[in-house]
Amino acid sequence: MTDGGLGSTGRTREAAAAILYRMCLMVTATPAPLTAERGEPIVGPGSGDRPACCALYHRAIELIGKRWTGAILLVLLDGRLRFCEIKALVPEISDRLLCERLKELEGEGIVERSVGEERPVRVEYSLTIKGQALEPVVRALKSWANTYR
Fold first, then answer.
1. Could you tell me the CA-to-CA distances from 3 to 10, 110, 143, 148, 149 in Å, in that order?
2. Region of residue 68 (left: phi > 0; alpha: psi -120 to 50; beta: else)
3. Pairing state of beta strands 81-82 and 111-115?
4. Which residue segment(s) compose the domain that 73 sits in?
5. What is the pLDDT, as a whole number, of residue 49?
6. pTM of the model as a whole
7. Angstrom distance (rounded) from CA 63 to CA 50
8. Is 1 part of any domain?
9. 21 assigned to some structural domain
């Protein structure tokens, strides 16, 4: 039995935390600072020698962890798609929510929206370099989810 999908072993939680930390590094493109100006580790109060949670990491998790965002990223890993194609590959998402998530990801520089010159207008979505950098993390999370259903 699992607790909240994370598994009941510490190893499973550690693996998930490691994946999410790597995701933070990929989304921000620069590693989160782990030392203070004096070269000392940044630690949270009462945490011993453990580093405090990085604000960049938290922001990355909040962005990528939003409902449907992971599924959208997963289907875009295989190349550019039109809105209706994404909708077909992520069938339970509403048009409104898909539109909202795509705008958020575009605003973060993870997804690029391309409008073609032809008539009728052809709008396609693809991952930017920053979005493509998430591939190992998204695929690892998919593998983890299949392993620890």
1. 12, 31, 18, 11, 11
2. left
3. unpaired
4. 10-147
5. 72
6. 0.68
7. 24
8. no
9. yes
Q: 3-7, 26-30, 77-81: lowest mean pLDDT where?
A: 3-7
- How many folded domains does the chain comprise? 1
Whether 3 maps to a domain, the answer reads: no
Alpha carbons 69 and 56: distance in angstroms, whole number: 18
Question: What CATH number is associated with residue 110?
Answer: 1.10.10.10
Residues in the chain, overall count? 149
Determine contact, residues 130/111, Cβ cutoff 8 Å: no
Contact (CB, 8 A) for 40 and 86:
no
Q: Which residues of 138-148 are buried (b: 16+ CB within 10 A; e: fewer)?
A: bebbeebeeee
Classify residue 33 by its DSSP letter.
Answer: P
99 in any annotated domain: yes
Strand ranges (DSSP E) for the chain? 81-82, 111-115, 123-127
pLDDT, one tens digit per residue, over 47-103 is 667 777 788 888 888 999 999 999 999 999 999 999 999 999 998 999 999 999 999
